[in-house]
Amino acid sequence: MGLYEDYILPHVIHAACGGAPVTKQRQKIVPRAEGRVLEIGMGSGLNIPFYDTDKVEMVWGLEPSEGMRRKARNRVKAAPFSLQWLGLPGEQIPLDANSADTIVLTYTLCTIPDWNAALQQMRRVLKPGGKLLFSEHGKAPDEAIRRWQNRINPYWGKMAGGCHLNRDIPALLTAGGFKIKEIESIYMPSMPKIAGFTYWGYAD
Ligand SMILES: C[S@@+](CC[C@H](N)C(=O)[O-])C[C@H]1O[C@@H](n2cnc3c(N)ncnc32)[C@H](O)[C@@H]1O
Questions:
Q1: What integer is the mean pLDDT of 17-40?
Q2: Ligand 1 midpoint to CA 127 (Å)
């Protein structure tokens, strides 16, 4: 891990993911989590304030980047529920099968290198009847925006920790074995359209 990824990128990601439109998206998804929750790519812990403590038993925060875990330290300390770090990537979830009631996936599927392996792992650890709650940016519906997403994607990934602008989120979830039960999408306001098309909902 280089100096940029370890010391600068966590601040960049925290700022980019902490804006008002993204925060509004978190509020639509995170309070729906219940029971034993696995958050994939917890980052700087921006979802922590939005968990409903009456519904959440505990949270596993899976986050492979030490720099991101460092950036999350204060929010983790202040978490009003038991939170356990898992310092591994989504492709290697170190939990038993059927251990999570809810999986929370926000703005991370864009970044996971082997998204299919990670989704297989999520399926393995999600209990029957459990829910995968997601809010993820990706492939835009407009051809002109999609062209720009495809053009900029290789450079964007280098600056943004491997984030892809153009992943087809519903198609990835379905290919990974999930059934989408509810989905909505919007261009988040006050954000560049290439990075702001968000899909949210739940799958099982
Ligand atoms: C754009 S950030 C989003 C962070 C957080 N989910 C949020 O909503 O603020 C993407 C996160 O995915 C993490 N990540 C990168 N590769 C990953 C992998 N293979 N598995 C799980 N998370 C990964 C990054 O370290 C980073 O914290």
A1: 98
A2: 23
What tens digit of pLDDT does each residue of 163-193 get? 999 999 999 999 999 999 999 999 999 999 9
Would you kindly state where each structural domain of the chain is located, as residue ranges? 2-203
CA atoms within 13 A on the CB side of 43: 24
Cα 55 to averaged position of ligand 1 atoms, centre (Å): 24
Cα–Cα distance measured from residue 41 to residue 147, given in angstroms and rounded to the nearest whole number:
28
Any atom of ligand 1 within 6 Å of the Cβ of 122 = no
Helix (H, G, I), strand (E, B) or coil at 9: helix
Which residues lie closer than 8 Å to 127 by C-beta, 6 or more apart? 98, 99, 100, 101
CATH no. for 2-203: 3.40.50.150
Residue 59 has pLDDT above 70, yes or no: yes
